[in-house]
Design a protein that fits this description.
2 copies of one chain form a homodimer. The first copy, chain A, folds into 2 domains: 134 residues, 60s Ribosomal Protein L30, Chain: A; 152 residues, PurM-like C-terminal domain (Phosphoribosyl-aminoimidazole Synthetase, Chain A, domain 2, Alpha-Beta Complex), CATH 3.90.650.10. In chain A, 34% of the residues lie in helices and 25% in strands. In chain A, the strands form 3 sheets. A 6-stranded mixed β-sheet of chain A has the order 8-10-7-11-9-12, with helices on both faces. A 4-stranded mixed β-sheet of chain A has the order 3-6-4-5. In chain A, strands 1-2 form a two-stranded antiparallel sheet. The radius of gyration of chain A is 20 Å and the shape is globular. At the A-B interface, helix 1, strand 2, strand 3, helix 2 and strand 4 of A face helix 1, strand 2, strand 3, helix 2 and strand 4 of B. Strand 3 of chain A pairs antiparallel with strand 2 of chain B. Chains A, B: This is Thiamine-monophosphate kinase. Chains A, B: Catalyzes the ATP-dependent phosphorylation of thiamine-monophosphate (TMP) to form thiamine-pyrophosphate (TPP), the active form of vitamin B1.
């Protein structure tokens, strides 16, 4: 099987998407703007050995590479629309490709995303997806809108993916069922797309947690010119982690673990009912974890006694 | 230097682009549609050791990864607007990064392209650019419009990049000045952006030649349901290659070499004056190399006597 057979057999599927005038198969796709909407556009690259284990199941890799991109759309409050996939593959193995593509198109269809283009080449596993979505004009959720006194909110649970990674690296020993749940969070993150859209007009700033709560929150603080106090006892996680791990193991997982793909956002206290409604509408648990302060770029993570915690590692830096 | 310092110091430059509402630094960029225009969107990934030598100069790599993407915009007749860069780098070397970024932003500025986002990670050199551009609504140049009787045209010269690659792989020995010119074509391809836009409403089908004239022309034949006769004596190349190489060496370079990034397009004979005007307006030499025939997907490459040539290798296939 050659490159062009692969494209025709596996990638040129019938897909919907009223805005897609021309999909896979030309020099570029053609997408027609939708009236009154802005485009949000983002890209994420995943490499074997860095973002996933090289022997991970094809379906899990495909899910994750699209999910982390969908998570960026969620963080903008955008409706995902289309995606392009670049893939370097060591060979074209039909079993592997079927599994990869079925998983990719399944998650894409669940979010109304049309695969409109891409590039394939021979090489060690590298996957890059660029994704585009829409928000009502001028309403995209940015990192720069947090105001002093705003509540800080976090969706779902954090620390699970990091716990699974630590176990797979031999640095942690969780009970089997706990590891299984954490590993599922690592392999199959759920992008909070519905929640993001429900937060339009409600959240003052938002991002998705990919590098760890502490480091990602710092991005909001920098962009908004504010500070934050975070109550670490309110950080949502698996009960088995919260109660089964010593604090010195638990807190780095929760604050600096990364790979969570939950939404971290701020909203005025007057919006608490609206935030709760957004959580219910999207079927997502939401935790109020802290408050925006006026101390520019100063993040205090407080323990049960209200004392600041010193974190050795702030979060994931690809070149740190 | 960490990942975020790199982004701030090297990538968050002041750029123009009226349609870019929000650039680098959030979860996604925000781009506002322009009235009456369609978006053309394309992506290309380049890997060390496959698309470029790992020790190539940073400025040359940066030029090429953007140029090949600009070439896809040219092939659609699109005005390039924005790009996203994903890069895997073994380390953050300030000298290397300065050179890479200066070259990238220089070519981007020359074409009015704003870098709106990207992703960086540690790994062997991999670069992926996704590019977006605009065409007047419904006018993008596709591969599917070639009609029986249309002329087949080729811009610039082909075979130079392939000749340089063959020499660098030790399979060819060109005079030094000839190699230097060919190597420049390999390292610094010139995307035919102005020509592409000048061909809107003139060309019936178009693409850019990246995998070799013969293979890329087959894409037009397949998409348009037609055939083609190509007069190989009319294939434009460097005189020193045409006259210095035996035909058995020359023709594979011209027909199946790849990495040319010239525009291959079809147009009705009634459009010859308009085609010539498009060449003059864009400062590009154009050669009429053949005719579209009604034999579906049958490509005849004819020698000086009008006899069909048999090519062993049709062109570049990443998994062939």
């Amino acid at each position: 099987m050659g490159e062009f057979d692969f494209i025709r057999q596996y990638l040129q599927r019938q897909q919907s998407g009223a805005e897609v005038v021309l999909g896979i198969g030309d020099d570029a796709a053609i997408v027609r703007p939708l009236p009154g909407l802005d485009w949000c556009i983002s890209t994420d690259m995943l490499l074997a050995g860095r973002h996933f284990f090289a022997d991970e199941a094809a379906a899990d890799i495909a899910h994750k590479v699209l999910a982390v991109n969908l998570s960026d759309m969620a963080a903008m409050g955008a409706q995902p629309r289309w995606a392009l996939l670049s893939a370097a593959l060591p060979q074209l193995n039909p079993v592997w490709l079927s599994s990869f593509c079925d998983s990719l198109f399944s998650l894409a269809a669940a979010h109304g995303v049309t695969l409109i283009g891409g590039d394939t080449t021979r090489g060690d596993y590298v996957f890059n997806i660029t994704i585009g979505g829409t928000v009502p004009q001028g309403q995209g959720l940015r990192r720069s809108g947090a105001q002093v006194g705003d509540d800080i909110w976090l969706s779902g649970r954090v620390g699970l993916a990091a716990a699974a990674l630590q176990q797979r690296l031999g640095r942690l020993r969780l009970p089997e069922t706990v590891f299984a749940e954490c590993n599922q969070a690592l392999l199959r993150p759920t992008p909070q797309v519905a929640l993001g859209q429900a937060l339009l007009g409600v959240a003052s700033a938002a991002l998705d947690v990919s590098d760890g709560v502490a480091q990602d929150l710092q991005h909001i603080l920098r962009a908004s010119g504010v500070g934050a106090d975070v109550d670490t006892t309110q950080l949502p996680t698996l009960a088995a982690l919260r109660h089964g791990l010593p604090e010195s193991t638990l807190l780095p997982l929760l604050l600096a673990g990364g790979d969570d793909y939950e939404l971290l956002f701020t909203a005025a206290p007057a919006q608490r009912a609206a935030v709760a409604a957004a959580g219910i509408a999207s079927g997502t648990a939401l935790s109020r974890i802290g408050t925006i302060t006026e101390q520019r770029q100063v993040l205090h993570c407080l323990d049960a006694d209200g004392h600041p915690i010193k974190l050795d590692q702030q979060g994931y830096d690809h070149f740190g």
